[in-house]
Amino acid sequence: MENNIKCSVHDCLYWDNGSCSADGIEVMVSDGSQIAGSELKTACKTYVNQRPE
Predict the structure, then answer these.
(1) Count of domains forming the chain
(2) Distance in angstroms (rounded) separating the CA atoms of residues 30 and 18
(3) 36: which DSSP letter?
(4) pLDDT tens digits for 1-53?
(5) Taking the model in full, what pTM does it have?
(6) Which of 12-16's residues contact partners 24+ apart within 8 Å by CB, and which partners?
(7) Where in the sequence is the domain holding 10, given as residue range(s)?
(8) 20: buried, middle or exposed (CB in 10 Å: 19+, 13-18, 0-12)?
(9) What pLDDT is stored for residue 53 in this prediction?
(10) Between the CA of residue 45 and those of 27, 32, 39, what are the distances in Å?
């Protein structure tokens, strides 16, 4: 089932040619609060580095 979630993070395990292949995603405010005020203050917590160091 296609989820229609776009993604531009090429080094994420779930990145699939511009789409997210994860079964679900978690997006949070990057400073831990509950109000972002801008897309620049959001973070995808589903991210998994496909090239672990």
Answers:
(1) 1
(2) 22
(3) -
(4) 567 999 999 999 999 999 999 999 999 999 999 999 999 999 999 999 997 66
(5) 0.78
(6) 12/44, 12/47, 12/48, 12/49, 12/50, 13/48, 13/49, 13/50, 14/46, 14/47, 14/48, 15/50
(7) 1-53
(8) buried
(9) 66
(10) 6, 12, 14
